[in-house]
Write a structure and sequence with these properties.
- The chain is an alpha/beta fold and 305 residues long.
- It folds into two domains: 172 residues, 3-Layer(aba) Sandwich (Rossmann fold), CATH 3.40.50; 88 residues, 6-phosphogluconate dehydrogenase C-terminal fold.
- The protein has twelve helices and nine strands.
- β5, α5 and β6 form a beta-alpha-beta unit.
- The longest helix is centred in the middle third of the chain and has 28 residues.
- Bound molecules: NADP nicotinamide-adenine-dinucleotide phosphate.
- NADP nicotinamide-adenine-dinucleotide phosphate binds next to α1 and α10.
Length: 305
């Protein structure tokens, strides 16, 4: 594949940025990839493992001459990072991000950007519970959706190029409005994470079941919860604080359904439970048919990622 951008700069060098780097190299999507991370430790690790063609010690230096800059930092600091790099952005450059929430990021970043750059937010729906510069791998985005969320008035050519870039990284792409994105993701990702955190917290609190029993007898459902609940605390704190409205709406609905199931159990309403579980089973089948997971008992992870 020929390069889509001459120089791509990745700000923040964690799971997503490091996976992007390896996937950019795999497909030859940029002539040069420059990286920057806040801590010296992460910058040194990046240099040590050959993550990025060049690592800069300041964000300003890193974005110089880049025709694509991607913010790969937690959602809560996107605005501050945008403010820091804004004066050094090349006219005509595209600025994007990979944040898990879109409306809050658009509101935080847009005011800082000069008129002569294109802002095209995006969100790859791919991740693991691991974080940091060593956690990335080139296949992370393969066959996963990346939602492109252009802001009003964005230049179509800039959005098209970014969409092609994500396709080159292995993703399937679709465009979506920011508010709709935040609602969809609260259902498919944010609230499920909150539920996993809660269940693992409950198991941890329960005095009558020891920690060693929880670990030793950990069955499939709980094991998956622990994997999700091991996700990065900073990232997920920011996700919930930035997607408040949608999270609270879906959590409200979740609580209602939970009470209905609780009542069905108390009143021996087996028909209700059976109907409910039949409906939810069909959702699982739909996900497998859409190629977004496998029917294997370990979800195809082979016990690793
Ligand atoms: P990560 O592995 O924890 O890496 C975060 C990076 O951001 C690190 O390099 C960190 O630098 C840097 N950073 C943190 N605070 C900063 C600050 N105040 N100023 C400058 N840099 C800062 O995170 P990730 O999983 O790649 O997530 C990055 C973004 O992708 C987040 O917005 C997240 O919502 C989104 N996302 C994540 C997933 C997922 O499953 N992980 C999926 C899709 C989208 P240091 O290492 O120097 O601290």
């Amino acid at each position: 594949m020929t390069a889509i951008y001459d120089r791509v700069t990745l700000i923040g060098l964690g799971l997503i940025a490091s996976s992007m780097y390896w996937a950019i190299k795999r497909a030859g999507l940029a002539n040069e990839v420059v990286g920057y991370a806040r801590s010296e430790e992460t910058r040194n690790t990046a240099r040590e493992i050959g993550l990025c063609d060049r690592i800069c010690d300041t964000a300003i230096d890193a974005v110089e001459g880049a025709d694509l800059v991607v913010l790969c930092v937690p959602v809560g600091v996107m605005g501050a990072v945008a403010a820091e790099i804004a004066p050094a952005l090349m006219p005509g450059a595209t600025i994007s991000d990979v944040g898990s929430v879109k409306r809050a990021v658009i509101d935080a970043v847009s005011p800082h950007l000069p008129d002569n750059v294109h802002f095209v937010p995006a969100h790859p729906l791919a991740g693991t519970e691991h974080s940091g510069p060593r956690s990335g791998f080139a296949e992370l985005f393969d066959n996963r959706w990346c939602l492109i969320v252009p802001v009003d008035g964005t230049d179509d050519t800039a959005s098209d190029a970014l969409e092609k870039f994500w396709q080159g990284l292995g993703s399937l792409t679709e465009r979506m409005d920011a508010d709709h994105h935040d609602l969809v993701l609260s259902v498919t990702s944010h609230v499920p994470h909150l539920i996993a955190y809660t269940m693992v917290g409950v198991a941890d609190d329960l005095q009558r079941v020891t920690d060693s029993e929880v670990i030793k007898y950990s069955a499939a459902g709980f094991r998956d919860f622990t994997r999700i609940a091991a996700s990065d605390p900073t990232m997920w704190r920011d996700v919930f604080l930035s997607n408040k409205d949608a999270t609270l709406e879906i959590l409200g609905r979740f609580t209602e359904e939970l009470f209905a199931l609780q009542r069905a159990i108390r009143t021996d309403d087996g028909a209700h439970l059976h109907d409910y579980f039949t409906r939810t089973r069909a959702v699982r089948r739909g996900i497998i048919e859409a190629g977004q997971d496998t029917a294997a008992p370990d979800f195809g992870r082979g016990g690793s990622k």
